[in-house]
């Protein structure tokens, strides 16, 4: 009896968690299928598109919008480059932190922590000024650089937690067994370290993809404007009426990469989030 | 060969020479490996914040860049004596305290469900990562549209709310709407950190308490929560500092109207929208200092031990 009650309770809990996570996603998805006319005159309120189903019309409009297409390219390019560079640099640093004793190690960890807590907005005016002076304003590198700075702490923390768990003696063991040091590194250490590096890369990518403050302040045209900034400036043909269903379609498109990454790498993300912050 | 990187004499005294050579080598290698990371982290933060400090003593507007003038602490005096600044600090602290408190409770409940559940583990973890990964701006839009009376579903679903109630017409409901978006998006992060903490609590201890006749409530308060204190504190610290810097949701949902503006938003508005770089810089410095103060207060108040939480 007691066990049954527990099972029911757990089932209700699971249902609540799923509803919490998916309901707003379902809502934006449903909104993206409503016709723009119905949304602007409010003729079809409610959760589902009942008599205002517009098919893929909004998605077609988003795809034909030049600014939005550019924004997707910018976001993918900038986030990927920032992720690769940041993870490479963080791997070096995390290796040193996990394996070597050196002066200033504490300082590095403290700096990383301080940067992680840094109020991004307080950099907006000096960076805006500086970037315009040195010509980085409204360019890809102008966003890649700040993204790297702000993802490095997360990447370093996650990676050093991972690296600490690697049995490094195995490298020597392989060498004793006749492997060259390069072979030992490639066949033993790389496979052990790869999951950690990969996890750090996913978390870094999420951060870069999500950034808004730098996106709106350090860009002014579609030359470098990323998706979140483009979404917020996306007004459509009538500036006095935000095209809710169009925006919803654009938002869905911007969410697809996140959903794909989550679907494929769910385990790795959870491991990364929990190992970096709390370790037993 | 002489090396520039000298080991301090206190160390050299009790370390044999050949070890000291190795220590020195390791020292140098370690410093070289972390150098790029440190440089990149500081380029975009240390220099600009020092520049902000410098500019904050000037009257400097982008609309009239040639009339830059040294005015000492005037910007600070103006900011600190303005009611707007204190109102925005108050609103920001309100966002932080309310969202983190609610997230802690809901996040803990979610963590318990995820910890206990045996079926559909993958499905739940995948679902919970979607709000975590989704762009904050998208979350802001989704909730803004959900709360509007023309198209949203919130008014229809809440029985005690009129169908034409305007959530964005007054401070309190607008703040609530912003908080809902913030809480929805960040609770998963909180629950995953708490889940990691829960995994560290020994099952035997909980079982023992159960055998001794402790109720579920007692087991939670006396056994589980004290044993995952470090995880809770780290989660609270990270989330609180994040919530204190709230910006995206406000920008998208109200653009700071109806007194929903946070201190981050005020700083942004002064520097980017009004082109007041001098005043904006002063606010940036004040924002920076206030974050430090919040971090310090939380660490002291809750005695957060980051080293212990990392298992060092």
UniProtKB/TrEMBL annotation, chain B:
Record GO cellular component, one term:
plasma membrane
Which PROSITE patterns does the record associate with it? ABC_TM1
The record's InterPro entries line, in alphabetical order, gives: MetI-like (IPR000515), MetI-like_sf (IPR035906)
Q: Which residues cross the membrane?
A: 33-54, 93-114, 126-145, 282-302
Keyword vocabulary terms for this entry: Cell membrane, Membrane, Sugar transport, Transmembrane, Transmembrane helix, Transport
Query: By its UniProt entry, which CDD domains does this protein fall under?
Result: TM_PBP2 (cd06261)
| Main location per the UniProt record | membrane
The residues forming a coiled coil are none
Q: Note the SUPFAM superfamilies from the entry.
A: MetI-like
ABC transmembrane type-1 domain: from which residue to which, for each copy?
89-298
Q: Biological process (GO) annotations? A: transmembrane transport
Q: Where in the cell is it found?
A: Cell membrane
- How does the protein's chain sit in the membrane according to the entry? Multi-pass membrane protein
Per the record, the similarity remark reads: Belongs to the binding-protein-dependent transport system permease family.
Which PANTHER family does the entry link to?
BLR7065 PROTEIN, INTEGRAL MEMBRANE SUGAR TRANSPORT PROTEIN
Q: What is this protein called?
A: Multiple sugar transport system permease protein
In which organism is this protein found?
Nocardioides marinus
Its lineage reads: Bacteria, Bacillati, Actinomycetota, Actinomycetes, Propionibacteriales
